């Protein structure tokens, strides 16, 4: 059973976690990625956003949410007048998983075993930050924190109590918005993302 557990530092502060993260070999995903991508944001943030995993650009830059999905997320935050510097953003899985297709690296969804392997990092971040609200972006983060049977499109936008935080909710992933079937579906999914972000922000105040 792969796990990050042995690589976690004794001290569970955000800086200590960030320092220890690059040495993680808790699952096989470290082998092919450029680098690990730690969370960013205010250490006193009342709201934590949890994405899936770094994408191609995040893997190159070492920062979360700097690629196309991240740009869409930042657009939604700006439209809601939420300062991105005032929230903490991280991922359920900290290394980029992909397959090579010629010059491009195609994103692959992490397996449950990889989500589980990386979960100690996420739980330690939650423990260090103690956010009032956690918003899971997409199915992977939801699986990690709300269980493998969580039904995203049925239960998105509902505030749930979990052992990790008093209030956890889930919404669609910004990359799912970008992949929407047609213009109408893209607009609908974007509205879900914005509504759930607004609710998460409001309940974190
Ligand atoms: N998508 C994610 O889920 N996380 C990132 O950091 C970037 C894109
Ligand atoms: Fe460690 Fe997570 Fe990277 Fe796997 S994906 S090697 S558990 S940091």
Question: What does this 3D model show about the protein?
Answer:
By secondary structure, the chain is α/β, with parallel strands linked by helices. The protein has a single domain (5-38, 45-203), classed as Uracil-DNA Glycosylase, subunit E (3-Layer(aba) Sandwich), CATH 3.40.470. It is built from 8 helices and 7 strands; from the N terminus they run H-E-E-H-H-E-E-E-H-E-H-H-E-H-H. The strands form 2 sheets. A 5-stranded mixed β-sheet has the order 1-3-2-6-7, with helices on both faces. A hairpin with a 2-residue loop joins strand 4 (98-101) and strand 5. The structure holds uracil and iron/sulfur cluster. The site of uracil has 14 residues, from helix 3.
Write the layout of secondary structure elements.
Layout: H1 14-20, E1 40-41, E2 47-51, H2 56-61, H3 68-79, E3 88-91, E4 98-101, E5 104-107, H4 112-129, E6 133-137, H5 138-146, H6 152-155, E7 167-171, H7 174-178, H8 183-203
Parallel strand pairs: 2-3, 2-6, 6-7
Antiparallel strand pairs: 1-3, 4-5
